[in-house]
Protein: MFS transporter
Organism: Streptomyces aurantiogriseus
Amino acid sequence: MSDTRAEEPPAGPDPRRWWSLAFIALAQLMVVLDSTIVNIALPSAQRDLGMSDGNRQWVITAYSLAFGGLLLLGGRIADLVGHKRTVVIGLIGFTAASAFGGAATTSGMLFAARALQGVFAAVLAPSALSLLTTTFTDPGERHRAFGIFGTLAASGAAIGFVVGGLVSEYLSWRWCLYVNVPIGIIGVLGALAFLHDGPGREGARLDVPGVLLGCGGVVLIVYGCSEAEPRGWTDPLVTAVFAAGIALLTVFVWWQKKAPVPLLPLHILQDRNRLGCFLTMALSVIGMFGMFLFMTYYLQVVLGYSPLRTGIAFLPLTASIFIGSNQISARLLPRLPPRALMAPGMLLAATGMLILTRMTVHSAYATEIFPALILMGLGMGLTFMPVFSTATAGVAPQDAGVTSATVNTSQQVGGSIGTALLNTIATTTGTAYITTHLTDPAHRARITAEGMVHGYTVAIGWAAAIMLLAGLSAALLVTAKPTRHGTAAVSEYVA
């Protein structure tokens, strides 16, 4: 028999809902931050643990594989056993895995710890977003809450670069993982004290074939993208992995039509607003994560920035994301349809990307990099907040977890694909440039730097095109109307 008490909505707004938001946002920040915090520290970890150049990628991909591949399962588990319970379990597991990784003495231990982080992040992330959806039911307050949540989702990666640079320069690469321990402990205590359990259905069954097919297919696709960087897109292993992943996902869709309790109810994807949000999220993150990768290497290797200075260089991006999400989107979403924010947001972000395609080995940060980061941040802020709010609006309580997981899956898988795809473009075009222009060995250093930057600018140009495609998806697919009755509440907050 199901526990109907867990499914009954509260009689009125939870008086502690803003405290709940603080700890939900803290959990989300920890998950998103760990997607990038180890990037700057990777060279130090590689030297310390004796990783080979071929294996070092697993510090990044072990996390994204587990996270992106298991998010749908994590969302369904949240729906079955309760959102508060899975948030607490996810926080405890993520914190323990972080401590294990910080204490790693071999590369294998670090890879395993990163994979465990991804597993528990897959449980934690959809539960956190589901609790946000069910805690804030007033339209005005909902916009405010999603503005904060969207800011963290969009800027957490940049914050990860700042924290990673700080601890790498002044402490040790291990603190990129240890930093999660105090955050996790505070999150667990806050979750236990302030969160109300979301809807759970005791006695319900998991769709085991759906788990194996869907999660297996996503894992193979993400794995294929990660292997395309060192092997090339036409490598037999890469093509075989992609074929197997596509086959599993095709069978997954067929099974979801027949399953009595599907892992991913297809009616969620049949709603054009949600489908448009999922597609916009995936395409926008492809470009954003590629930009993070290239700008990190550009600032450190080409311009000679320290890890900390590199992290600080991303702060204008974070600040403009906050402004775009909390000051612009929060004001306008109650008055405008979501696509009126999402499509222009992607256009702004693409414009910032196009500015970066003019980078050279001698570009000045203040006049050439800074304006681009501002435009990209504003565009992302305009886009992410309405994506999260629209994708999860009007979802049945029993589907809240899996819908939230689908939003996060599109973000994580998009980031993984973007990193692999754009890095392959940058590497191949950069190598071709060096091969063509290196006629005098005495100029090797200069030509190598120019080739590296050439590869980055070509890949960033592709990222700009992908962001324009994201804007087109939002404009054509997202037809939701503004929630005008929430205007007063939002106006009061942002005034």
Notes: Residues 1-11, 485-495 have pLDDT under 50 and may be disordered. The two ends are 48 Å apart (CA to CA). The chain has two domains: 17-206+263-494, 207-262.
